[in-house]
What does this fold into?
Amino acid sequence: MANPLHAHEFWFTPIAPPTTPGDSVTLRLEVGEFFTGEAAGFSRVTTHTLRHHSAAGSENLRPSLQEHALEAEVALTLNVPGTHLFVYNSAPQQITLDASKFEAYLHDEGLDFVKVHRQQTGAASLPGRERFRRHIKTLVDAGAAPDIAQASDMTHATVTEQRLEIMPLVNPLKLAPGNTLPLQIIFDDRPLVGALVKAWHKHKGQLHTVRAKTTSTGLVEFNLPYAGEWMVSVVHMVAASAAESEANGVDWDSYWGNLSFTLVQRVGEFYTR
It folds into this structure.
């Protein structure tokens, strides 16, 4: 399994329909770059939160994981029609990058305010000592619910209490290629302003990446031109307190958000991706 300390993106493998109530699905965490990854694995020691949300309520999946041994995949049955949301929060991990790699990473993720702070405090040439957490979500469609239930199914907008949360304002699973997906980025229960958000998709073997920054209300939107697997990612960083820096050897706390889903194009009774 891949070492998440040495890779960039971290996501749930999008699960493609059609699925119907009673079907089994497989959860898989991937870590890598450019929407190409390897299994990161699940265990209780690496997992702070693993929950399943649906119209039937919320279920804690973490107790079912092995304590230390990494499981590449977790299988479970979707017994309720409608939208299902899976939420994963990692346990914190620490990494130290040399100054040049840290500065390049800050540039790639739109974290220029951190670069400015390092320059102003004379730390630009020092290694980046970072503690990071992953806040990951994926949406799965388990078949059409009755009209009334379907209209009231707001599982996609469940507030999961992730510190950094990507909140879709419409259900991506109900969109068609060419539609626009509006999102709000939340950090500490408030809209995150000026954050660089990326939407990722592979179309005919080529990576399609769109970048946009959030507005003063944390809003961002992306046109989704193609059917298939998509993910949306964002990174935010805050300075560690002096006490934390002294005690734990970290200068920055970073939070990595990711939302994945499969956009389908329905032709008659068939799904195409």
